[in-house]
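Hi U.,

Before I forget, here's the chain from the pilot set. I'm dumping it here mostly so it's searchable later in email.
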Amino acid sequence: EVQLVESGGGLVQAGGSLRLSCATSGFAFDDYVIGWFRQAPGKEREGVSCISGRDGSTYTADSVRGRFTISSDNAKNTVYLQMNSLTPEDTAVYSCNAENSRLARSYWGQGTQVTVSS
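Structure:
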């Protein structure tokens, strides 16, 4: 059974930090790109950052670059998103996704709420 379980969300004041975790199981971690997405109320889902399970290469969206850092622990099949200098505009449900485009497989976690107060 494939599982992606996010944790680490919560309420934080502007300027604060949170570290999200996405613990995965049930698929070959090294063969997937793991990404963090977020969706704020009334807005479309936005890709935040992703990392290759194979070589660790990363991509981070312009909107969070310099504040958010993605990393992975392949031994634990877990991906992290370190979020610093948070602003109210970062308030959203953050979800992780595992995708293998060659196999056309995509899996989602249930999401974790991040709320940044001003």
